[in-house]
């Protein structure tokens, strides 16, 4: 008698449409409590920024920074329970990845190329040199490699947005992300207030000052705040240079995604033993989907396939989603732990910013910009 084989056993039925819908509803309901908390923090942060703009005319402290500070402040008096964790984790990762993808729609390669090859090459070189020098400074101060990369990329590219984009690629801890953003935010405000002094101190023209602001100020709104008092030419040049720095986010994060598997594990002091080759990850592990999305949208924008009328709403949506994700990161941070690393991080961010300023001034002098 021949025994029945496994092939003759009946296959389990495929999930019905109702079962799939029930699963989606269950997933959404598990995300909702934490997501609502992040949205509430986002709303308060945007309200505070709006009040700040009404009183001062400029958002010196952006809602993105306020969200992470408010989230961290809430975390000190309330520890999210299990029902909130899934939504907070979703906001910190998936929502952030969508926001980074949408940032590509605001990048126009054509406008950047039209500014001239020498300036373009200088900006790219300045960003690369700043990242390398900042990493070396941070490591010399004893900061972990991931924290060093966060600070270096934040200073060299676009502050909080770069930190937020780099963090999931290199597997940075939420405390490191919060520390880098918090201290970078403080210096960002000081830069907006103090940078115009370089016009009389160094005798810079509007064009030269625009390049300086575009190379050193973190966020686009801060570039506007730092250049509008100097003149319209400074604002136009500063914004263009800033866009080049934003464009560098894609290649830098792509390079870091290739480097990430070689980084030591969090808290590790040594690498893997020689001769033991790590398993080669797949393409989508090396190149995260949201980086491909960023580059795809930048290409579509450059080809004119994304109309000008669509840029503003896409940018607003990207900004909103970034604030939501920063609220989630803040909720994962205990400020008492953050205070323990504050001194070294402050020194590292300050030193990195000074390096960036020096490189920018040397570039302006070397290119003899008028």
Mean pLDDT over all positions: 79
From N to C, what is the helix and strand string? HHHHHHHHHHHHHHHHHH
Distance between the termini: 95 Å
The domain tally reads 1
- How does the overall form come out from the CA principal axes? globular
In total, the number of strands is: 0
What kind of sheet is the major sheet? Answer: none
Percent helix range:
over 70%
Taking all Cα atoms into account, the compactness measure Rg is 23 Å
Give start-end ranges of low-pLDDT stretches: 1-9, 268-281
Alpha-beta classification? mainly alpha
Transmembrane segments: 21-43, 63-82, 94-113, 119-137, 149-171, 177-199, 211-231, 243-261, 282-302, 314-333, 345-368
Pfam families: Cons_hypoth698
Keywords: Cell membrane, Membrane, Transmembrane, Transmembrane helix
Organism: Methylobacterium longum
Features:
370 residues; mainly alpha; 18 helices; globular; disordered N terminus; UPF0324_pro; YeiH family protein; membrane
Layout of helices and strands:
Elements: H1 17-56, H2 63-77, H3 82-103, H4 109-113, H5 117-140, H6 145-158, H7 160-170, H8 174-194, H9 198-202, H10 206-216, H11 220-227, H12 232-247, H13 249-259, H14 283-286, H15 289-302, H16 308-331, H17 335-340, H18 342-366
Helix pairs in contact: 1-2, 1-3, 1-16, 2-8, 2-16, 3-7, 3-15, 3-16, 5-6, 5-18, 6-7, 6-8, 6-18, 7-8, 7-13, 8-11, 8-18, 10-11, 10-12, 10-18, 11-12
Transmembrane segments: 21-43, 63-82, 94-113, 119-137, 149-171, 177-199, 211-231, 243-261, 282-302, 314-333, 345-368
Family: Belongs to the UPF0324 family.
InterPro entries: UPF0324_pro
């Amino acid at each position: 008698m021949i025994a029945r084989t496994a092939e003759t056993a009946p296959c389990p039925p495929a999930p019905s449409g109702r079962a799939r819908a029930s699963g989606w509803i269950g997933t959404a309901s598990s995300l909702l409590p934490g997501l609502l908390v992040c949205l509430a923090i986002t709303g308060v942060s945007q309200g505070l920024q709006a009040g700040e703009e009404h009183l001062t005319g400029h958002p010196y402290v952006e809602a993105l920074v306020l969200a992470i500070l408010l989230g961290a402040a809430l975390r000190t008096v309330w520890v999210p329970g299990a029902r909130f964790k899934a939504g907070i984790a979703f906001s910190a990762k998936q929502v952030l990845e969508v926001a980074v993808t949408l940032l590509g729609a605001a990048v126009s390669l054509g406008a950047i190329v039209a500014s001239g090859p020498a300036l373009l090459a200088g900006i790219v070189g300045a960003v690369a040199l700043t990242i390398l020098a900042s990493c070396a400074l941070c490591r010399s101060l004893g900061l972990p490699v991931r924290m060093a990369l966060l600070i270096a990329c934040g200073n060299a590219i676009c502050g909080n947005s770069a930190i937020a984009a780099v963090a999931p690629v290199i597997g940075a801890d939420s405390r490191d992300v919060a520390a880098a953003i918090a201290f970078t935010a403080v210096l960002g405000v000081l830069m907006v207030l103090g940078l115009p002094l370089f016009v009389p101190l160094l005798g810079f023209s509007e064009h030269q000052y625009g390049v300086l602001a575009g190379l050193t100020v973190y966020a686009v709104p801060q570039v506007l705040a730092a250049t509008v008092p100097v003149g319209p030419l400074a604002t136009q040049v500063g914004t263009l240079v800033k866009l080049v720095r934003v464009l560098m986010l894609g290649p830098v994060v792509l390079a870091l995604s290739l480097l990430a598997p070689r980084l030591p594990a969090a808290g590790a002091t040594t690498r893997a033993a020689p001769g033991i080759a790590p398993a080669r990850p797949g393409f989508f592990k090396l190149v995260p989907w949201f980086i491909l999305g960023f580059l795809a949208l930048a290409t579509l924008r450059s080809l004119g396939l994304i109309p000008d009328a669509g840029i503003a709403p896409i940018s607003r949506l990207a900004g909103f989603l970034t604030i939501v994700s920063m609220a989630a990161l803040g909720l994962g941070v205990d400020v008492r732990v953050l205070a323990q690393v504050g001194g070294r991080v402050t020194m590292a961010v300050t030193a990195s910013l000074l390096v960036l300023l020096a490189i920018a001034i040397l570039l302006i002098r070397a290119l003899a910009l008028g």
